[in-house]
UniProtKB/TrEMBL annotation:
Name the UniProt record assigns to this protein: DUF3579 domain-containing protein
InterPro entries for this protein: DUF3579
Pfam families in the cross-refs: DUF3579
């Protein structure tokens, strides 16, 4: 069964005309701004880690920020902020679901 709405949005560090977005640390900066938006609200020292709802990563050599749909449900203004960031900077956005790396069966080597 296919979910009617994506669980995650991928903001990619590639503009619609194919250029790499700069500065090179844009994903970490964006995720850092969003660090206090997390399940249960801001926690002591939450500024020291990324929110599980907005995480920088690299996929196929492209810097991305994975934004989980729970952010939209919990903090619509924060969701609008990251979506407007992508739109204002002409970044490619994909709706998808991040699939975790497969764990090899017990007794096998990867």
């Amino acid at each position: 069964m296919v979910s009617p709405t994506p669980k995650e949005i991928f903001i990619q560090g590639i503009t619609h005309d194919g250029r790499t977005f700069r500065p090179s640390d844009w994903a970490e900066r964006l995720a850092g701004v969003m660090c206090s938006f997390r399940p249960g609200g801001p926690q002591p020292d939450s500024h020291l880690s990324y929110s599980p709802w907005c995480v920088p990563t690299v996929i196929n050599g492209i810097k991305c920020v994975v934004v989980r749909a729970e952010l939209r449900d919990a903090e619509v203004m924060a969701w609008d902020f990251v979506m407007n960031f992508a739109r204002d900077n002409n970044l490619q956005v994909a709706e998808a679901c991040l699939v975790p790396d497969a764990v090899p069966p017990a007794g096998t080597r990867s």
